[in-house]
Amino acid sequence: WSSSDSVRSTDSSGDAGRAPGGPYRVVLLGASGVGKTAFSSIFAGAADSMDSDDCELCADEVCEKKIEVDGEAATITLLDTSDAETDDGPAREHYMQTGDAYLLLYSVTDRASFLRASELRITLRRFRPAQHTPIILVGNKCDLARRREVSVNGEETQRFLCVDEVRPLSDMQVPTVALSVSEGRACAAVFDCKFIETSAAVQHNIWEAFHGMVRQLRLRRDSKEA
Ligand code: GDP
Fold first, then answer.
1. What is the pTM for the complete model shown?
2. Is the CB of 216 under 6 A from ligand 1?
3. Is the dihedral of CA 23, 68, 194, 110 positive or negative?
């Protein structure tokens, strides 16, 4: 990967000079309601932290924390773009330009958020045309999938969920077809990024997403050093 692909607001020369363990600026992107705030709350919480006191809230949407991935410490500065979601101006541009890596969230229960993730990926590409900034496409709220239909060869074909997340599915309710794992994977392949399904509600795969991100950042670092 190119050494010029990390554009940082504080260091226009990219990530040269940064310590090997970070801090890495990881940006949460996604439509409103997909779970960005839930993600940052889990990140800011004590779970999986090397030191429960090491999370610093520098601003409303930023949390810096040291975590251990594969026996090596890494510091992540997490930026939650919730407040900038409706702002297509300078705030959005700032996030698009200053992240070292992006978690691109959608909700598996919300196709509009899936489309939004595609739009955001395209916008990201515009800001970083020939660059390979690590991006993970995250299908959140997988706990809401009520049923998966599995084909004979074991591949998931469809999943259904109740439109209402609390009430049980009644005969009168038409189930909404939620996004399948294979749709997420296919989209990630087109986007040239990794994919993971998560549930912030039951804390499933949240840390795997952060750890995967750190691994990608390290791969990028190592390939630059080689
Ligand atoms: P944001 O607008 O992207 O920051 O979304 P929030 O984090 O505020 O989440 C929107 C709503 O979805 C809240 O009511 C959350 O409790 C809920 N939510 C977030 N993640 C999950 C999840 O994984 N599963 C379920 N069932 N609800 C979630």
1. 0.79
2. no
3. negative
